[in-house]
Every structure is written in C-alpha cells, then in structure tokens.
Amino acid sequence: xxxxxxxxxxxxxxxxxxxxxxxxxxxxxxxxxxxxxxxxxxxxxxxxxxxxxxxxxxxxxxxxxxxxxxxxxxxxxxxxxxxxxxxxxxxxxxxxxxxxxxxxxxxxxxxxxxxxxxxxxxxxxxxxxxxxxxxxxxxxxxxxxxxxxxxxxxxxxxxxxxxxxxxxxxxxxxxxxxxxxxxxxxxxxxxxxxxxxxxxxxxxxxxxxxxxxxxxxxxxxxxxxxxxxxxxxxxxxxxxxxxxxxxxxxxxxxxxxxxxxxxxxxxxxxxxxxxxxxxxxxxxxxxxxxxxxxxxxxxxxxxxxxxxxxxxxxxxxxxxxxxxxxxxxxxxxxxxxxxxxxxxxxxxxxxxxxxxxxxxxxxxxxxxxxxxxxxxxxxxxxxxxxxxxxxxx
Length: 393
Description:
The chain has 14 helices and 13 strands. The protein is α/β, with parallel strands linked by helices. It has a domain at 81-309: Spore Coat Polysaccharide Biosynthesis Protein SpsA, Chain A (Alpha-Beta Complex), CATH 3.90.550. It is a single-pass type II membrane protein.
C-alpha cells in the first residue's frame, strides 16, 4: 500500500504541507510563485534530461523518445479502417523477432536498364566471399548477358522502368520480393548500373550485417524540390505535410523493413496516385525520392539512419548529380570519399541550407559511404587498378 500512498501525494498534499509550515513573511501570492518555480524547474529538468522508454517520455517528448520497434506513434485523430489495419500489420512486423540465420547474407540488388558496365569490378569485389551474399539483377530493357559467374543466372523477371514514375518503386519492390525468398538474406542493398564499391567485401559485409538500422536517406526539404513543391493535399489524411520527406533512392535495408514494404498498400497507393511527374499546377513529384523516406519517417523513425551509404555528389545543385570521367578516378578521389563521416543535404528553398548529418554506426562515428555513383563506363579500367584489397573495419 506504500505505492498507493506515494501516488496520492500530489499537489494538494504539497500545498497542505506548505500550509502547516507557513512563515510570517510569506504573504499574498507567495505560495503560487513557489509552485510556479517548482513546476518550471521540473519541466526544465525534463527538457535537459528527457526520459527514455517510459510513459513520461511519450507524454512530454514523443518526438525524441527512443524505441526502435515500438511501432507507429499514437494518432491524434480517429483512423480509418484501412489505416488501422496498416498500423496493426506494421507494428506486428516491427515487434516480432526475426528468425536468426546461421549464415546471414547481404542481398546486392542491381537496378539497371541492361548490362552492368562494372560487372568485372563487382566480380573482383565478390571473389572469395561465396556464401555470404546473393545477387539479383532487374534489367528493365531485357535480360542482361553476363560473363562473371556471380551474375550469370541472377536476372529476375523485369518490367519497363520510367524515370521518376512509380514503376521505379515497383522495380525496387520486385527486387526485394525476390531477395526475401532466401531466408538467409538479412540486409538488402539497392545499387545502380553506375555504382561502384568503395571498400572490400569484408568491410561492407560487417558494416551492414552488424547494424539493426536501415541506411535510408531522409531529410526535410521545404523548397520546390521537396515538400514545398511536391506534396499535395489529396495525400491527406494518411500522409500529412509535416511527415513528407525527401532522400536518395539508393538504400540498404534490414529484413524487417523489407517486409514492411511488401506489406504496405495504403501508403504506396497514395504515392502511386498523387506523386508523379506532370501533376496539376505544374507540379512534379518523384516517388523514388519520397515514398520509402516518408513511410519510414512515419512508422519507424528511429530505425533509419537518415543518410545513404551510397555517395552521390549533388554539390553542383543541378537536376542530376555529378558524373565522373576516367581522369577523375584516382586514389586521392577514393581516399576523399571514404574519409567523409558527415553526410550533406542541400535544400531547394531560397535559403539553400546545407544540412549536415553525422554518420553514426552503432553509436560510433564512422565513414559514411560503402558505394558511390555516378561513373561513366569508361572509368572501369581505372577502378580495377585502384580498388582496395583490404581495409580494417
């Protein structure tokens, strides 16, 4: 019963006890001033030292609470049946323990129009690591022919992909559904035909397998190339403006998050209908830059890194990132890229803000990037010469 008594000791008891110890010089509203001071000190303490994984945390600081796997936040409105069903499924996936694999593998998923210009570089990357990876190739313009044994027979059924349209997301989902059929695949990396590896296989494998977050690029861009120009009200009520996020499409993803993508139809439908090029009022929206980013910011924000492990140079701030030519490929370039431990994002509003995200891996500052793009095919020979043989993780 001591617990019950302690719970009942509240403000009223505090005032009664204060009343029994009144001093002559405390007149008028002095007790009220003391009460306000007490509450102010309490709230300041909560702000400086917010509680974690407690009811108090979610009452006072819902946006700052840690809780990977706790599921979507408590809604502020009555949900539709479809939303409730979606939240139930997503919450169950986040909370359910995954079957551990005795031989965890990384699924390397290549999204390409046709052949892979860097096939032999990837072959060099994979050599000697059989049994720790799987390869899947989505060639949208027809089956690609390969020479490397690591790629032969790894084409999946593919369909046409149009840049900026929902077919890009469909292709990524097609890669994921094929890779998920192997229960040993625990982490899934999406790569393009212009991607190259920056680190040896062991480094990449340890980086991805021994983390429990998905490396999904995600940031708030209020400008015309972000929420300010691409969000539309028909996405309501399921997707509010404040949740709309942007980021690179080149992700790596945990098995749990890959399952959520397979299970989701509600939020996918919103992006299929209302995020596309040529929308009303001259708006253009590109689902591959917003769907995964917005979805996971809504349902599991603590489960994503907010930066991509694939390096892309957007510093020129054009429609497309910088493309590298043979003369650019040097050991100095490789050292520079692999030394970055901060990821940069550039907003498209008038402020042109540079957002800096430190690259934190399991609580430690680490280099950000495992892969890089975009490189012209004729850079292959130079990459074969400088690709590292070993790197300490």
